[in-house]
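WARN retry 2 of 3 for item q-0093 after timeout on previous attempt; input resubmitted unchanged.
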Amino acid sequence: MRDHLLAIRDRILLSTRFQRLAAAFPLTRPIANAQAQKAFDLCAGFVYSQITLACVRLGVLDAVRDGVLSIDVLAARAGLPLARARVLVNAAAAIGLLSLRSRDRIGLGMKGAAIVANPAISALIEHHALLYDDLSDPVAVLRGREDSGRIRRFWPYAAGGARGAEETQEIKAYCELMGHSQELISNDIIAAVSFAGFGRVLDIGGGDGTFLAALARSSSSFSGCLFDLPAVADRAGRNFEAAGLSDRCEVVGGDFLVDQMPSGFDAATLVRVLHDHDDGDAARLLSSVCRGLQPGGTVIIAEPMSGMAGTATVADAYFGFYLMAMGSGRPRRPDEISSLLIAAGFRDVRIVRTRRPLLVCIVIAQSPK
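OK item q-0093 returned
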């Protein structure tokens, strides 16, 4: 019945006569205009992203962080001719990054304030230059081009490199981006899941240790271990030492798809790890986790998930294409993750919602007792 009704709707919407009537009739005109704006936003989205990138790279948002500035002062700080600065300011104000104030002054817009308050967002905006380069020909990506893209080379596990212990510039960039983005979701995970009953936690693929450090700061009795590629784990170890957490947070280097992981933990966390891997690798990883946990141990999978209310734009649109460009993994629905967990030997699978499901959802399961 739903498909039949949608088919009728499609025929109506495709009628040019109906479109003219909807745009002219006072009651339907706001709806027609709103849909036209959304359609235009789809066409102009790349331009909006480049306006945002320009504001970040030129320091425009940071410049007005502490108060309004006149357009000429802002232009001088950004190193732009006044006329070009005005084009950027007007464009940024149009998409909510800046706000036009009285006497030709500029302040932060609501979206700009969100970016300035979260350095992780600025890091992601810079990172997206790689993604946009890969997606300059989306059809080629969809058809599975064989040449390796910039996003694939950025992530060491996707490119099949960085297995050694020496940190490279690529590893440094990868760790910094992981750390920034982990900051956005660490508190949401800790607020949604009680870690009080876990004596020791293994954080698999934990990057530079941002999440494990947040766990350690949330509980004085907590102890954990981070397992990641050797160069990444070494960097996490230095971060733990600098934060005074090295007595409670240890690191072990290795490849969880090849090497044996540390065992005997009460819980294991996979924070934005599973969706980076294809089904076969994800199944092997979960089986290894199940074998390594204490009897009755808990696995906590936290990442953006498909099929949840309000997550489609992030999970299906953004991560769907991002992971395809990366050449590994895919966004999964909670029931798909549940099936992988059960096949790996876990039981008592449950879904835990977070306060911002757009960024992260959680699936928890227990190993056999």
